[in-house]
Automatic annotation (TrEMBL):
The lineage of its organism: Eukaryota, Metazoa, Chordata, Craniata, Vertebrata. NCBIfam families: MFS_SpdSyn. Keywords: Methyltransferase, Multifunctional enzyme, Transferase. The gene is Mettl13. Residues 424-450 are annotated as: Disordered. GO terms for cellular component: cytoplasm. InterPro entries: Lys/N-term_MeTrsfase_sf, Methyltranfer_dom, SAM-dependent_MTases_sf. This is eEF1A lysine and N-terminal methyltransferase. One of its GO terms (biological process) is methylation. Residues 434-444 have a biased composition (Basic residues).
Length: 686
């Protein structure tokens, strides 16, 4: 402890370093980055005939090792500590005659201009730039000016650093503004021998003549796992890229030492595009008794199924890890913008990287299994990409579900882990680039999804609960053929209004949708169509309801809100807050018939906000039922204007069974998994 400075400023003091090296004696002191790890990078930029200057050499063995392996012999080492210079002259004088050690301050060097091809700095900049005080920054500017002066054009300043944000930012900004090319290499770690948890970096600044008036900056980063540098557009982006790698190193260190109490999520990006290629979630199961063969496994989520509860939620992944029987399970989600060469290709690509996330105590060279559903990576075919001024970028994609079913989905890329709309598909169609099947080929191939929409199937559990809420209207036996006026706010793919239109033969459905692009998507890709009993109004739902309340009150038997919020910072993603404010809800009540039902899809993760919404609803609607959707955040609220129609869950279940029986006409398709009574027997009355 007595070797440490009293304050960071002492790192720049010659007196401190004299005392440090006298007390330490002959033992070499390496800040970080041993020669074997630095050697691959140094070999790229130091040539045998180069004249090399090492600033702040201390008693590091780096110069000696470079000399001994034949990398370079014409090396001049300088330091402000007289003690260490005499020590190093004694240690290397006779063994390495072409290498010299000089007592010199790097802020005021005696060398002529353009004297060296390489200036090498191992930790010296880090030691000098301990803070961002004006005096410290002035010293750093002087150091950089001297480095620039003694380097030839085309020469390289190699700086070995831990890349603290303020250090990297200062170096990058200074030299890029001078017209130099700046490249940052991440040094490959040395496993258990690595002294520092944080990775070591080498800044490579190559001197070019500054072109007057030019603002061109060439900034690059070269991660440890690849040789080809990646161009970045600004100093801020370069600092951020380094910071990401530092956070990853800290994460791997923590995961290697102890089980993680909370699930850890991270993205692995494509080397060329920089876009996310894999999303990894690390899940530890403390209840699993560890043995040699169940410590660690990788689970590849089939394409298109990453939004399912089992794979897309923390609780689901926790259940998956427990049922798989592994102490640590890493789930891997595949991104729609990327191409994958099957399970074997993914395994080859990920094997090295996922081992960095291995649990503590995993034996060396332990075989780690790669798991999946059915042994394949699933099927995902993007059918359409579009951009809406209101919804942003979106895709329509076909995916293979569990078993032989295929589904079409609408995904907003601003919230890519949420399925906005979904429909089951029927008739087969080839994927893009595939040939059409011959008529005599009866069985579809494994990667051949169908295209026709199955309008009898409601994919979303919350839509099933919303339809079940119609049991609160009139007599269930006569309801399918009753004259109903239904208002649906929020079209999406159109499956909810389509189902009501098709199964309630006399229902007149009005749909309000603010985004005209969604009407085009629903019509072109989800089998939606308008007619005498189905009309879409392109309007803001708030304005539409307000206009109706002023002109034509008490006209709807049922009003359904299934509207997403575009503001992802809120704790409520459905509906937007304005739709559950009391003045607006009173307008909703105005256009609802006295015996009608208002059905609201609520998605709220903020407990306080949710309680506030429920309180407001109770103020406006005296009778309020709630139906939570198992495994999802969705909660369906069934609201009625009068408390006189109150029914207990048992009665609601009976009404639901009667309605389902009436809806299941002979010859009409019905999804056997859709049991209306199940939807209503689980309601609670608030």
């Amino acid at each position: 402890m007595e070797l440490l400075p009293r304050s960071p400023a002492e790192f720049g003091s010659a007196r401190y370093w004299d005392r440090f090296f006298r007390q330490r004696g002959q033992r070499p002191f390496e800040w970080y980055g041993a020669f074997p790890e630095l050697c691959p990078v140094l070999h790229k930029y130091v040539r045998p005939r180069d004249k090399v200057l090492v600033v702040g050499c201390g008693n590091s063995e780096l110069s000696e090792q470079m000399y001994d392996v034949g990398m370079c012999e014409d090396i001049v080492n300088i330091d402000v500590s007289d003690a260490v210079i005499r020590q190093m002259q004694e240690r290397s004088g006779s063994k390495r005659p072409k290498m010299s050690y000089l007592l010199m301050d790097m802020l005021h060097m005696d060398f002529p201009d353009a004297h060296f091809q390489v200036v090498l700095d191992k930790g010296t900049l880090d030691a000098l730039l301990t803070d961002e005080e004006e005096a410290t920054l002035a010293k750093v500017d002087q150091m950089f000016a001297e480095v620039s002066r003694v380097l030839q054009v085309g020469g390289r300043y190699l700086c070995v650093s831990l890349a603290q944000a303020h250090v990297l930012k200062k170096a990058v900004e200074y030299f890029s503004q001078e017209g130099w090319v700046v490249r940052v290499h991440q040094v490959a770690g040395s496993g258990d021998k690595q002294q520092f948890v944080l990775p070591v970096f080498v800044y490579v600044m190559t001197k070019f003549r500054k072109i007057p008036g030019s603002a061109l900056q060439i900034l690059e980063i070269c991660p440890e796992e690849q040789d080809q540098p990646m161009r970045v557009e600004s100093a801020e982006r370069l600092v951020a890229a380094v910071k990401d790698r530092q956070h990853y190193a800290l994460l791997c260190s923590q995961l290697s030492k102890a089980p993680c109490r909370e699930q850890v999520s991270l993205d692995l990006c494509d080397k060329e595009s920089g876009k996310p290629r894999y999303t990894l979630n690390v899940v530890d199961s403390p209840s699993v008794k560890p043995s040699r063969d169940n410590r660690f496994a990788i689970f590849i989520i089939p394409q298109g199924r990453e939004t399912e509860w089992l794979f897309g939620t923390e609780e689901g992944r926790r259940q998956l890890a427990g049922s798989a029987g592994f102490g640590r399970l890493v789930t891997v989600a595949l991104h729609r913008e990327q191409h994958y060469e099957g399970m074997a290709g993914i395994q080859a690509e990920l094997s090295g990287k996922v081992m960095e996330l291995a649990p503590p105590g995993l034996p060396a060279r332990q075989q780690v299994p790669f798991l999946s559903v059915g042994g394949d990576i699933g099927v995902r075919a993007v059918q359409y990409r579009g951009t809406s001024p209101l919804s942003g970028e979106y895709v329509v994609e076909d995916v293979k579900g569990d078993g032989t079913s295929y589904f079409r989905r609408l995904i907003f890329l601003s919230n890519r882990n949420v399925v906005q709309s979904e429909a089951r598909l029927l008739a087969p169609t080839p994927l893009p680039g595939q040939k059409k099947r011959r008529k005599d080929k009866k069985k579809p191939g494994p990667a051949e999804p169908p295209a026709a929409i199955d309008k009898s199937y409601l994919c979303c559990e919350h839509h099933k609960a919303m339809v079940a809420g119609l049991c609160l209207l009139g007599g269930p036996d006569s309801l399918p053929g009753a004259l109903l006026a239904v208002l649906v706010v929020g079209l999406g793919g159109g499956s909810l209004p389509l189902f009501i239109h098709d199964y309630f033969s006399q229902a007149h459905v009005a749909v309000v949708e603010i985004d005209p692009s969604m009407l085009e998507v629903a019509t072109q890709w989800f089998g939606f169509s308008q007619g005498d009993r189905m009309q879409v109004h392109i309007s803001d739902g708030l304005d539409y309801v307000a206009k109706l309340a002023a002109e034509a009150p008490a006209q709807y038997d049922a009003i359904m809100f299934d509207v997403d919020s575009k503001d992802l910072t809120l704790g409520m993603s459905c509906p937007p807050p304005a739709f559950v404010e009391k003045p607006f809800l009173q307008k909703v009540k105005t256009i609802l018939k006295p015996e009608g039902v208002f059905v609201l899809n609520l998605v709220c993760r903020d407990a306080r906000l949710k309680e506030s919404v429920l309180a407001t609803l109770r103020d406006v609607f005296p009778l309020l039922y709630t139906r939570r959707i198992e495994g999802e955040v969705n909660e369906i609220l069934l609201c009625q204007p009068s408390p006189e129609g109150r029914r207990d869950p048992t009665e609601l279940g009976a009404r639901a069974r009667a309605l389902e029986g009436a809806l299941r006409e002979p010859g009409r398709p019905w999804d056997s998994s859709y049991v209306l009574a199940d939807m209503l027997q689980a309601v609670s009355i608030l």
